Amino acid sequence: MSAIQCRAAEARDVEAIAALHADSWRRNYRGAYLDSYLDGDVLTDRLVVWRERITRPDASFRTIVAERAGTFAGFAHANLDDDPRWRALLENLHVVHALMGKGIGTRLVAAAARAVLDSTPGAGLYLWVLDVNVAGQPFYAARGGVEAGREMRGPFPGGGTALGRRIVWPDPSTLLRG
Q: Per-residue pLDDT tens for 48-68?
């Protein structure tokens, strides 16, 4: 098995991040995001977003890239101080579809947790997983995430709404173990 390396995202990663983000949304968010958006030029939309995020960094955000055997394998993006109660938001976690189940998502979540702890010791970590993302829910539960409420999310880019579950880790250091 090839080693998984995590590092801060760089400008050279923008196209890979945007392409993966578009692919992941198309695979996992049908029924939440409008089909007209997902079937349209979602890639261009994601390129604009990620070019801005990566080339004009903000100290309150961290974007982490995972590589496996030197090849782009996924990314995570965290807002380090999103909410006064829940604190840091893991806004994005996406793994190349063909590489799922190889530990990449676990490594990315751990890297995001490390970024939170390094930035704000004692802060919690949370995310929103949409009900339509049936693969994500057991992944987060297996890593100790606890559901702490549900609410309608959206409108999403291009339109659409969906029920989301807030998944929390009051102590993100639990994600660094094992």
A: 999 999 998 788 999 999 999
Token pair in block for residue 13: 């990663």
Over residues 14-42, the pLDDT tens digits come to: 999 999 999 999 999 999 999 999 999 99
Query: Can you tell me whether residue 23 is helix, strand or coil?
Result: helix
Residue 139 maps to which CATH number?
Answer: 3.40.630.30
How many domains does one find in the chain? 1
Looking up tokens 């030029």 gives 41
Domain coverage including residue 44: 4-176
pTM to 2 decimals? 0.96
Determine how many CB atoms are found less than 10 A away from the CB of residue 32: 20
Query: What is the C-alpha end-to-end distance of the chain, expressed in Å?
Result: 17
Structure tokens at 7: 């590092």
